[in-house]
């Protein structure tokens, strides 16, 4: 058979990142770097109140001004980046694990178990996730830990549903029939063959998930069931500064902008990964 | 199969799913109650109740019974509409929330109108001129708005539009002296019922910013969904055939492409209606509005956990019922859903 006469565009040099893609990835890397290094380099004064310097406007001494306790807003955000990002990663990891477990057990188990698990998933999808998470966090006693656990137990249904669907598709692949013909047990088939070949979808999904989780986490903290003051978590910081929006706008605007930038950066990263995996989505 | 029977079967199946979901919700709320640290009877009786009062409460709530019996008893109570009692207002959560629900619904209805009337035209123009300046602008706006925390957007816009530029009221539901006698609890509706035109406009004016913020949170999804759906339809063969027959671009869009691409948007708007009720908790308190979101927010602040969990049960129930209503409405409106549900019969 002769090679088809189709001209293939030469791949761009290196990773072939466009300027936009490079800047999004750069931003995400910067945020991660701040989260890792931030608390190590922040001045000791961010943890202490200094009422004499309260509510100073942004200037040379304090880039983003100071809050009602006289703490530097910029450095509080830098310190809070770790709490915020680490919590979001934890939430996404935890609910992904639950989702993987539910989908795999459903796929490997008997038919009735699969049906039951998918009905439970349906119920989870039909309920307002943030409100149920709020309930769990309030019941366990408002704290960042409660909010993380609450979001983990309410976040898994989408992952489970998605992964179960992909696993069903993977089941059609010839190699699965091959493994079956070799006498591989159903459980082993699912965990060692079908699952690893379906996990791709979660890798694509995680960045976008981190973006939305940052938002929901900040919302729960704002409502009062997440991180509690004096935590530097961004949502709690906005909640604490709420009363100063008209006298010292920077105390509210800056942490909110941090949440927005982080959420947007991870959301865009998710889209970039998605388009790279399936270029037919480009432009959509 | 006759159409009536088809409807009845769909309704029955859909109702079954709703009952199942409500049961799941009640089970989750029961779990939450059991997760509460400390003595449930002590919490229900209040911090300064005597030992005898706590014991009486324990027996009243049936906490001396085995867990399974407690669970069944809880389900029975919920089925009868007893969602617990607030330890602050000392009223059943159900009656507290019933009073403020119309105010939330008013907000959600206006937000939904803003949401659709902005996102749908934007989505049409963006898809028709894919890659153009307007398309790029809208997509950038959608990404930016989608990443903003709603409560923060509310705070910032309230400050800018309400305090600095003074184009909308800072907070509240109706100006002092402009209110109408409370009939429904939704100020705009009450004004209409009292034939109070000025009061109606005043209530809408107070609604504008909170509803716009709530709409912004959801309109990005509508925009993206419609744009993607319309792009798909515009690429299909029948659109080319329509153009080849000489239909104008406008006619092709309004009569052919659009009706075929609105379906995913309607489905999305249906789920959004429910989700908006939950998101009211982020907006209502910022603007000092009454509503189930504000009630829940205050319950959290006052550590009135029974009221919080009752609100979760209540909001979850309202969301389920709204979703049910939307699905039934879609069945009536869209023949394709009927045939998708009962493919072989058509």
TrEMBL record, chain A:
<keyword id="KW-1133">Transmembrane helix</keyword>
<protein>
    <submittedName>
        <fullName>ABC transporter permease</fullName>
    </submittedName>
</protein>
<keyword id="KW-0813">Transport</keyword>
<feature type="transmembrane region" description="Helical">
    <location>
        <begin position="206"/>
        <end position="227"/>
    </location>
</feature>
<dbReference type="Pfam" id="PF00528">
    <property type="entry name" value="BPD_transp_1"/>
</dbReference>
<keyword id="KW-0812">Transmembrane</keyword>
<feature type="transmembrane region" description="Helical">
    <location>
        <begin position="20"/>
        <end position="42"/>
    </location>
</feature>
<dbReference type="InterPro" id="IPR000515">
    <property type="entry name" value="MetI-like"/>
</dbReference>
<feature type="transmembrane region" description="Helical">
    <location>
        <begin position="247"/>
        <end position="269"/>
    </location>
</feature>
<feature type="transmembrane region" description="Helical">
    <location>
        <begin position="120"/>
        <end position="140"/>
    </location>
</feature>
<keyword id="KW-0571">Peptide transport</keyword>
<feature type="transmembrane region" description="Helical">
    <location>
        <begin position="85"/>
        <end position="108"/>
    </location>
</feature>
<keyword id="KW-0653">Protein transport</keyword>
<dbReference type="InterPro" id="IPR035906">
    <property type="entry name" value="MetI-like_sf"/>
</dbReference>
<comment type="similarity">
    <text>Belongs to the binding-protein-dependent transport system permease family.</text>
</comment>
<feature type="domain" description="ABC transmembrane type-1">
    <location>
        <begin position="81"/>
        <end position="270"/>
    </location>
</feature>
<keyword id="KW-0472">Membrane</keyword>
<dbReference type="InterPro" id="IPR050366">
    <property type="entry name" value="BP-dependent_transpt_permease"/>
</dbReference>
<keyword id="KW-1003">Cell membrane</keyword>
UniProtKB/TrEMBL annotation, chain B:
<feature type="transmembrane region" description="Helical">
    <location>
        <begin position="107"/>
        <end position="128"/>
    </location>
</feature>
<keyword id="KW-0472">Membrane</keyword>
<keyword id="KW-1003">Cell membrane</keyword>
<feature type="domain" description="ABC transmembrane type-1">
    <location>
        <begin position="101"/>
        <end position="330"/>
    </location>
</feature>
<feature type="transmembrane region" description="Helical">
    <location>
        <begin position="140"/>
        <end position="161"/>
    </location>
</feature>
<dbReference type="InterPro" id="IPR035906">
    <property type="entry name" value="MetI-like_sf"/>
</dbReference>
<dbReference type="InterPro" id="IPR000515">
    <property type="entry name" value="MetI-like"/>
</dbReference>
<feature type="transmembrane region" description="Helical">
    <location>
        <begin position="306"/>
        <end position="326"/>
    </location>
</feature>
<dbReference type="Pfam" id="PF19300">
    <property type="entry name" value="BPD_transp_1_N"/>
</dbReference>
<keyword id="KW-0812">Transmembrane</keyword>
<protein>
    <submittedName>
        <fullName>ABC transporter permease</fullName>
    </submittedName>
</protein>
<comment type="similarity">
    <text>Belongs to the binding-protein-dependent transport system permease family.</text>
</comment>
<dbReference type="InterPro" id="IPR045621">
    <property type="entry name" value="BPD_transp_1_N"/>
</dbReference>
<dbReference type="Pfam" id="PF00528">
    <property type="entry name" value="BPD_transp_1"/>
</dbReference>
<feature type="transmembrane region" description="Helical">
    <location>
        <begin position="12"/>
        <end position="33"/>
    </location>
</feature>
<keyword id="KW-1133">Transmembrane helix</keyword>
<keyword id="KW-0813">Transport</keyword>
<feature type="transmembrane region" description="Helical">
    <location>
        <begin position="203"/>
        <end position="223"/>
    </location>
</feature>
